[in-house]
Amino acid sequence: MSDTGREIVVRGPASAFAQQIEIGVHRLIADEPTSAGGVDAGPDPYALLCASLGACTSMTIGLVARQRQWPLDSVTVRLRHGKVHAEDCADCEKKPRKIDRIERDIELFGPLTDEQRAALLDIADRCPVHRTLTSDIQIHTRLLNVDGAAEPGTADASAG
User: Fold this and answer.
1) 44-134: CATH homologous superfamily?
2) What does the domain layout of the chain look like in residue ranges?
3) Where are the beta strands (DSSP E) in 31-97?
4) pLDDT band at 136 (very low <50, low <70, confident <90, very high)
5) Higher pLDDT, 127 or 97
6) What pTM value is reported for the model?
7) Rounded CA gap, 156 and 136, in Å?
8) Greater confidence, 146 or 33?
9) Where are the beta strands (DSSP E) in the chain?
10) Beta carbons within 10 angstroms of residue 42's beta carbon
């Protein structure tokens, strides 16, 4: 659950949505559903984002239960992503504006006490991916030549 330093490489043709994802020895496919113009060859990018949050949530809850020797048998995390109107958004320049919302339902299986269940639910909001998604994020983007070198005279285009 720490920064592994592994580079993630995503490749795909400009003619389609389907993308090949390489993470070390692992291979995944991302795509859009047919309703959005893809061929549904894999999960869409938001589904992958939710899967990351769900996996991290489950791993973190399991880790804490093991450390505390609590009788947790398994964890199921169900997630949904959507856009909602932010009618009362104090920081929004334009109103109404839509904001991203992830709904996360957690099921804990095992003979846990009510206090243990409450503590593990609280832990969910402290998983590393949850913390990343709810923090200020900086994304530094550079344009590379086909040989992988940064193009001369291009500065980082940052979004945060």
Assistant:
1) K homology (KH) domain (3.30.300.20)
2) 1-43, 44-134
3) 74-85
4) very high
5) 127
6) 0.83
7) 18
8) 33
9) 8-11, 19-23, 26-30, 74-85, 98-109, 139-141, 157-159
10) 19
Please work out, in degrees rounded to the nearest 5, the angle formed at the alpha carbon of residue 148 by the alpha carbons of 1 and 142: 70
Q: Indicate the pairing of strand 19-23 with strand 26-30.
A: antiparallel
Is residue 106 a contact partner of residue 116, using CB atoms and an 8 Å limit? no
Torsion of CA 32, 52, 131, 157, to 10 degrees: -50
Report yes or no: 109 and 138 within 8 Å, Cβ to Cβ. no
The Cα 33–Cα 19 span in angstroms is 13
pLDDT bucket at 114, cuts 50 / 70 / 90: very high
Q: Decide: 109 and 74 in contact? Cβ < 8 Å.
A: yes
pLDDT at 7: 92
pLDDT given for residue 2 in this prediction: 45
- Distance of alpha carbon 85 from alpha carbon 43, whole angstroms: 25
Would you say residue 72 has pLDDT above 90? yes
| Among the listed residues 34, 36, 33, 28, the one whose alpha carbon sits nearest the alpha carbon of residue 11 | 28
How far, in Å, CA of 66 to CA of 127, rounded?
15
Pick 100 or 130 by higher pLDDT.
Answer: 130
pLDDT of 112:
98
